[in-house]
Amino acid sequence: xxxxxxxxxxxxxxxxxxxxxxxxxxxxxxxxxxxxxxxxxxxxxxxxxxxxxxxxxxxxxxxxxxxxxxxxxxxxxxxxxxxxxxxxxxxxxxxxxxxxxxxxxxxxxxxxxxxxxxxxxxxxxxxxxxxxxxxxxxxxxxxxxxxxxxxxxxxxxxxxxxxxxxxxxxxxxxxxxxxxxxxxxxxxxxxxxxxxxxxxxxxxxxxxxxxxxxxxxxxxxxxxxxxxxxxxxxxxxxxxxxxxxxxxxxxxxxxxxxxxxxxxxxxxxxxxxxxxxxxxxxxxxx
Length: 286
Hints:
The strands form 8 sheets. Strands 20-25-21-22-23-24 form a 6-stranded antiparallel β-sheet, sandwiched between helices. Strands 8-7-6-3-9 form a 5-stranded antiparallel β-sheet, with no helix packed on it. The chain has a 3-stranded antiparallel β-sheet with strand order 13-10-17, with no helix packed on it. It contains 4 helices and 25 strands. It is 12% helix and 37% strand. The protein folds into 3 domains: 16-95, SH3 Domains (SH3 type barrels, Roll); 102-160, SH3 type barrels; 169-285, endopeptidase domain like (from Nostoc punctiforme) (endopeptidase fold (from Nostoc punctiforme), Alpha-Beta Complex). By secondary structure, it is mainly beta. 41% of the residues are buried.
C-alpha cells in the first residue's frame, strides 16, 4: 500500500522533487535545491504560484529556506524553521544563507535608519524575524542594536539565536492579545490559531508543526479532561482550530469569530464552536 506524503512538508511535484525523496516519490527530475533567505518583513507562502491563491503560512525576515524552483516570478521553497513547502514571490528572497545572529522576541518592533527612536521607521519586523547585529549604541539612555545594513532596533527587543526568550508559552501568546486574525498568518501583524501556538512554543525553545491537524497528531502528549486536571499551557483542539488554556477555565486563541487574538471562558467557547464545528476533538499537553 502506497502512502501519499504530505505536500505541506515534502517538496514534490510530477516534474520535480527534493532529491531526499527520490526513493519515495516519482518525478521527472530531482534537485538538492539552493539555500536562500527572506529579505522582506513578511512573505506569504501559498499552495500555488498565483497572486490570488490562499495563504498557507508566512516566511519572516531573515528566515532561511531551500529553493527548489523559480519560474514566472515565483519560488517553490521549503522553510528551514518548520519544513513547510509552498510558493512565495521570487523578489521576497535572496541567495545564500542569512548568517543572522539575533531573533526578534516581541510581537512587533520598528527598524530605524539609525540609533534614534525619533527617526521615521524604515519598516517593522515580527517576532521570530532574524537579524544580524554588528554593534551597540545608546541614544538618550536607550540601547540600540546596530544591524549589518546600517539600520537599528531597540536592543531589548532582540535575543541572541539559541537563547530562550521565555519559559512560559502562554505568556508569549498573551502578548499577542488583540492582534488581528489572519488565515495562514504567522506574524505579529496577523496570526491564525496554529500560528499563535507555533510562535509561542518556539519562544520557549519548543518546535511545533505549523497546522492545527499536524499539532493535534504529534505535539506533546494527549490528555483526557475526564481524568486529567487541565492546566495552564494545555492545548484544546477542534476540527481546524486550536487554542491554549490560560488556566483550566480560560481559552486563549486566535479566533475567527472575533477576528483577533482573544481570551474567553473555555465552556463558552466549547458551546459556541459546537454549533458550527462540533465539540473538541482532543486535548494535548506540549
